[in-house]
Specification:
Blueprint lengths: L1 E6 L5 H8 L4 E6 L4 E2 L6 E2 L2 H9 L3 E2 L8 H10 L3 E5 L7 H4 L6 E5 L7 E2 L2 H7 L4 E8 L9 E8 L6 H26 L4 H8 L13 E2 L15 H10 L5 E4 L2 E10 L26 E5 L3 E5 L4 E9 L5 E2 H8 L17
Parallel strand pairs: 1-2, 1-6, 2-5, 6-7, 8-11
Antiparallel strand pairs: 3-4, 7-9, 9-10, 12-13, 13-16, 14-15, 15-16, 16-17
């Protein structure tokens, strides 16, 4: 089939590559406009745009596809059979959704109806879900409300971070969309209701699970609140990897790898003799143990958490003994307290 691909982040690139290497043809790509990724730096293209340029595929970068009817018309003139959307970052209007004869299809990184919205990978980790997955969904005007063509489950590792889980889900998405394109093509064209009936799509209200919304991550979400439990802090560091941070002696420090001092994580200590701290009486954020060549244990709202990898502002990522050398920490020193927004 002839395809217009809509996507923006690195997550979408392997999926773009999989379609490009299949027997389908990508006629054009739509992605978000170039942005300044950090203060004072030049504009940089999205990961999808960069890949599109390497492939020599015509690219569109609308700032608001709902209002830019000129770009809508240009896309319509291309006469693609189908639109495939992966984390594009804007809501597509009905005028766009209704154009391609085989419809618009979204690849969503959750088991719908759970975690509709902008950040499903992050919220599945922050919430401590045991499973997530990928859904291939027919697109409607609502936010991730369309009926499901294909959905596959994936178990989340207890120490997995957002980057690792994203890579696995992207790989699964790449496999699932090629299978789904074959089904969609066999289903033929026609009205949406006719196509959906032939494809035996499943309405989300007929699926198990409750509706939860994965709101966009805000700046305050990245702050570590040491009053939280060790498990909650661990989930936050993993779920917001590599951006969760605290303050150490006036400098921001990103926390990248940690292990709660908790029974379910015991096997991850690799025989190290670490204090139990299950009945913790230390102040949250206080350093209560320094383990040579490993890291430091910080007190939380209920026990302790072992920090083994981090990045101090202005320095490279460091771990174990190098991290300890950079921090120059002493027992009873504390990380600074920050006011944080609710993650509920």
């Amino acid at each position: 089939m002839k395809i217009i691909f809509w996507g923006t982040p690195p997550y979408a690139v392997p999926i773009l590559n999989a379609i490009k290497n299949s027997n389908h043809e990508i006629l054009a790509i739509v992605t978000q406009p170039d942005k300044r990724r950090s203060r004072g730096k030049k504009l940089s293209a999205s990961a999808v745009k960069q890949r599109a340029q390497e492939l020599g595929i015509k690219t569109f970068t609308p700032s608001n596809i709902k209002t830019q009817t000129d770009i809508q018309q240009e896309l319509a003139n291309i006469q693609a059979d189908i639109y495939i959307v992966v984390a594009f970052g804007q809501i597509l209007p009905l005028s766009v959704l209704n154009y391609p004869p085989y419809g618009c299809w979204n690849i969503h990184a959750s088991l719908l109806p759970n975690w509709r919205g902008a950040a499903p990978i992050q919220w599945s980790l922050i919430s401590g879900d045991k499973y997530t997955g990928v859904a291939i969904m027919a697109m409607e005007e609502g936010l991730d409300t369309g009926p499901i063509l294909n959905q596959q489950k994936l178990e989340i590792g207890i120490t997995e971070n957002a980057e690792e889980l994203s890579n696995r889900l992207s790989k699964l998405s790449s496999q699932l969309i090629i299978e789904s394109l074959h089904k969609i093509q066999l289903g033929g064209i026609g009205s949406a209701s006719e196509r959906y009936q032939r494809l035996n799509l499943i309405k989300q209200e007929d699926l198990k699970g409750s509706i939860r919304y994965a709101r966009q991550i805000c700046k305050d979400d990245y702050h570590i609140d040491w009053n939280d439990t060790a498990i909650k802090i661990h989930r936050k560091i993993m779920g917001l990897y590599p951006h969760a941070f605290t303050i150490w002696k006036g400098k921001r420090i990103k926390l990248l790898n940690c292990t709660p001092i908790e029974e379910s994580f015991r096997k991850h200590f690799k025989g190290k003799d670490i204090k139990g701290l299950q009945s913790n009486k230390n102040a949250p954020g206080q350093i209560i143990e320094i383990i040579k060549d490993t890291g430091l244990v910080v007190s939380t709202g209920d026990s302790g958490i072992l920090i083994t990898e981090a990045q101090i502002e202005g320095k490279k990522v460091s771990s174990n003994s190098v991290l300890l050398q950079q921090l120059k920490a002493s027992i009873n020193e504390k990380f600074d307290k920050l006011t944080v927004c609710s993650l509920n």
